[in-house]
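#lab-general

N.A. 3:47 PM
ok so I finally got the sequence cleaned up, no stray characters, all 295 residues accounted for. can someone with queue access submit it? mine expired

B.Y. 3:52 PM
send it over

N.A. 3:53 PM
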Amino acid sequence: MKLLSPLGATCASLCFAICVILSSFLPYSAAFAASEVKEEASRPPEGQKIAPEALFALMLTNAERGQSKAMLNLGLLYEQGVGVPRNFTKALDWYQKAANAGEAEGYLRMGLCYEIGMGAVADMGKAVVGYEQAVALGHVPAMNRLAEVYLNGRGAAKDESKGLRLLNKAADAGDAAAMFDLGRIVLNGLYGRKSEADKARAWFLKAAEAGHAGGLLAAASMLREGKGGKMDAEGALRWYLTALKGGMQAEGLEKAVAELKKIVPAKQAEAAEKAADAWLAARAEALKQTQAQAR
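B.Y. 4:20 PM
back already:
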């Protein structure tokens, strides 16, 4: 969402060079989506690796048989150019077919294509229709996207109340991006809300726990500076270490870790390190289980 950042230049200059574990925060990459195919016939045999071209052929075969998940994955493969030359027009076409077959994410991706003009002329009206249909099917990330539409009045009449309701609904459903956006809203007092650092801190911590990359830095910054509550150097170190060990690259990140290690007692620093390692291990295991369930 296009909201003000509470971290100034640090978040503004954030460059994501995410390692394998942090890449699990990005659920719509082609590689991850390909592992999410639910239909028995849409996956390779257990333990067997499949070349990108063979994966594309498998998806095409099953999409043409009417399997909605395969249609969605085929759109992703066309969008990313995996196993086939990149073709945004065909990607949009398969997203539309997946949507028509009842895939909520198909509607979301169709909306995104129309919003940015990928595979078709940009059309916010059509984008909003896609988001609304995805939300009607209960797709949580689409709630976040539609919230932005209403909060900024782009593609629909501005309705801050409706936008905030959608954002809160997405956050309550576990959407980390929505949690992070709510943190920024209450911190900066946007959309008629008064600035409440304590509530912002709580949202950033929830976003961090849920795996939002920006949430890691925001939570660490609030704890380090004592915004919205007591200063918590150990907690700040934990989240900075989580970001650093997870492969994130952000201006001043290594410096922040080094400075905190100078003031945090050795036992607390060790505890922060263990907490960061445990969090990353839990995220990796969750990703592994998700992929196993999809096989």
